[in-house]
Each structure stands twice: as structure tokens, then as C-alpha cells.
Design a protein that fits this description.
With about 60 residues, the chain is mainly α. Helices cover about 60% and strands about 0% of the residues. It has one domain. The longest helix is centred in the first third of the chain and has 26 residues.
């Protein structure tokens, strides 16, 4: 089970990195707060992340 969780986390981080690279290279901007919030949640292994909620400005 732990191996599967680690694999999913690595996959999610790779997807974030790919998305951030495209956003930055093609549009010259940084990802929105919601994507940054999701990234921090993945790094923290937060299984209760609510991707539908707008992150607060304090979360930056």
C-alpha cells in the first residue's frame, strides 16, 4: 500500500512539474494559487485536499 501511495505522489508531482513548465514557458507566468495549493498539498501528503475550494490568500 505504501509503495502505491509513493507511486501516486511521484506521478502527481510529475504532472504538476509538467504543467508548471508549460504554463511558465509558453505563457511566461507562474501557476495560479489553486495549482500551487495543490502542489503543497501533494508535498505534504494531505489526503484531505479540496481541489474545488479556492485557497485563501494566507495559504500562499
Amino acid at each position: 500500500m505504501a509503495d502505491r501511495r509513493h507511486s501516486l505522489k511521484a506521478e502527481a508531482l510529475h504532472a504538476y512539474t509538467s504543467a508548471r513548465t508549460v504554463i511558465n514557458q509558453e505563457w511566461g507566468i507562474e501557476p495560479c494559487r489553486a495549482l500551487e495549493y495543490l502542489h503543497r498539498s501533494i508535498l505534504a501528503s494531505d489526503v484531505h485536499v479540496d481541489v474545488d475550494r479556492e485557497p485563501s490568500r494566507d495559504a500562499q
